[in-house]
Each structure stands twice: as C-alpha cells, then as structure tokens.
Design goal:
Blueprint (H helix, E strand, L loop, with lengths): L31 H13 L3 H14 L4 H13 L3 H14 L4 H13 L3 H14 L4 H13 L3 H14 L4 H14 L2 H14 L4 H13 L3 H14 L3 H13 L3 H14 L4 H17 L7 H4 L18
Helix pairs in contact: 1-2, 2-3, 3-4, 4-5, 5-6, 5-7, 6-7, 7-8, 7-9, 8-9, 9-10, 9-11, 10-11, 11-12, 11-13, 12-13, 13-14, 13-15, 14-15
Length: 314
C-alpha cells in the first residue's frame, strides 16, 4: 500500500518542489508569498524554467512584486537575455528604489550591454544607499575605467580597499588602472599586494609580469609570468612570457614557449602572430631571411601587429 504524500513532503513526481506546490490537491488556495517561496526553491536548485513560470504567475497577480521582478531578471541574465534583464531590474527599481543590491545588479547588466556611463550611475546609487557595499565600489571602478575615466576609477578602487583591506581583486584592478595611467611603480606595488593576499591569484601574477616587463625588470617579469602559468594556463600570459624572453635575447626558449602556447590554444590568432614574430627574430639572428618563415612554420599563422602587445587581465 502506497503512503500518502503530505503537503510539505518532496513531490513524488521528482520535480524537487514540495508536494503542496507541485502535484498536490489544487482545491486549496496558496498565498503569493507561498508561491514565491516555492519559486525561490526552484531557483536555488537550478530549476530555472519552473522558477520562471512561478515568478511570472506572481507578476500576473501582482505586477509590482519587486522580488519576483528581481529574481526573474536574474534568470534572464543567466540566459544571456541582457536587455530583458535590464528592463526587469528597472521595473524592480521603480518599486524599491531604496534597495542597494538591485541598483548594483542593474549596473552589472548595463556593463554587459556596454552602457558603462549608466552603469557607473547605478553603482554610485548603490554606495550612496549602502556605503559599506565594497564590491559595488569595485564595480564602479570597472565601469569608470571602461569609460576612460582613470582617475575616478582609481579613486573607486581605493574606496573599496579602504573599506576592505584584504580585497585582492580590488588591488589587482587598481594595478591595471594605474598601469594604464602610466604609473608602473604604483601598479607593481598594487599587484604585489594582491598576491600577498592571495598567493594563487594567477591574473595578478600575469599583470605583475607585464608591468615588470614594461619597467625592463626582465628576470622578475619572466618569473612572474611563469608563476602565473603554473597556476592557470592563459594564452595572453604565454605571450607576455615570450616577450620577456625576447627582450632577454633568449630566442630558443621563446620559441619553446610559443610551441607550448600553441598546444594550449591552437586557434588563438594572438599566439600564432606571436610565434610568427619569434620565428622572424630567430631567423634574423641566424642570418637567414625572414621571407623563409613560411617554410619554417608548418601551420597557418596571422601577421597582425597585436603580436607584440602585452595583455593584462582583470
């Protein structure tokens, strides 16, 4: 004899929702709050289609339900529907303009849409409502940097660090922005601080390597890039390492690293173009004409000028 499911049991259909919210008797009314909690359970469990259906059901009954609008925007964002996500968050903001988290989320979506000036305003609104919202200062810095407003971005990152001194991502982003402004000494200090806080921070090691390369501190630059690659293989870090080796005149080792990069990223135009440059210099150093490079390289390669350009990661 089968046992009868109770209202708060998991539904036997396997949906993961409670029986009363799924296949249970439909004769009894459930409140919008109960429906919302059921939708949240689906959302948190990754059953996004179930959650979306319930959020939309709530909005039919209560179109200005801020929480449902906000969570529905998150589902749209995860699906890559950024325009829809922005519309839903704006609707939620109109209901709850005093909710800092929702302004921060709006800023993030606007950044994905390339609307960095609007995103910066959303992040400013976030921190005006919640001055200790540390990640929002970092987000503000990123939006301002994308707008080319480097001094303001640096100030935003410093605000984040002032409120949370053990924030490695803020130090890394600060270092990248200082580098872009040409203040390499301060950038190197910021990257070293990020690494001191998080020794396995591959991006910070890469960025430190590039800054040291620009300072012509070649041995340290090589060491930083190699550390970054041990932590996380990245074609851009390979390129920075190759450039450090070329600057040291180590053509054979640079060629070896290029081949390693090709194994990791065989379709990267930046890696192919860097290998092209290494081969040219390797042949020239041996008194052989660079025109023979096509015979030396048994692969398709590109010749974009991006080859020699270093790349920071933030």
């Amino acid at each position: 004899m089968k046992s009868k499911s109770r209202p708060n049991d998991l539904c036997p259909c396997g949906s993961g929702a409670k029986f009363k919210f799924c296949c249970g008797p439909k004769g009894q009314e459930i409140s919008l709050e109960q429906l919302f909690q059921a939708a949240v359970e689906h959302h948190q469990a990754g059953r996004l289609s179930n959650a979306e259906q319930m959020y939309r059901q709530i909005l039919v009954e209560q179109p200005r339900h801020a929480d449902a609008l906000y969570r529905l925007s998150d589902i749209a964002f995860q699906a890559g529907r950024h325009v829809v996500a922005a519309e839903l968050i704006r609707a939620a903001v109109s209901v709850r303009p005093d909710w800092p988290e929702i302004h921060n989320s709006l800023g993030i979506v606007l950044c994905f849409l390339g609307k960095n000036a609007e995103a910066a305003e959303a992040f400013r609104q976030t921190v005006s409502l919640k001055p200790d919202f540390v990640s929002a200062y970092c987000n503000l810095g990123t939006a301002l940097k994308s707008e080319g407003r480097l001094d303001e971005a640096i100030a935003a990152y410093r605000q984040a660090i002032a409120r949370q001194p053990n924030y490695p991502e803020a130090y890394n982003n600060l270092g990248v922005t200082l580098s872009d402004r040409g203040d390499l000494d301060s950038a190197i200090e910021a990257f070293r601080q990020a690494i001191a806080l998080q020794a396995n921070f591959a991006q910070a090691h890469n960025n430190l390597g590039l800054a040291l390369l620009e300072k012509r501190q070649l041995d340290e630059a090589e060491a930083a890039c190699r550390t970054s690659l041990r932590l996380q293989e990245n074609p851009l870090t390979y390129i920075n390492l190759v450039n450090a080796l070329l600057a040291k005149g180590q053509f054979e080792e640079a060629l070896t690293v290029c081949r390693q990069a090709l194994v990791h990223a065989p379709n990267s135009p930046e890696v192919h173009s860097t290998l092209n440059e290494v081969l040219k210099r390797w042949l020239t150093a041996r008194g052989r004409p660079p025109q023979g490079i096509r015979g030396e390289a048994n692969y398709r390669y590109t010749i974009e000028s991006a080859a020699a350009r270093g790349a920071r990661t933030s």
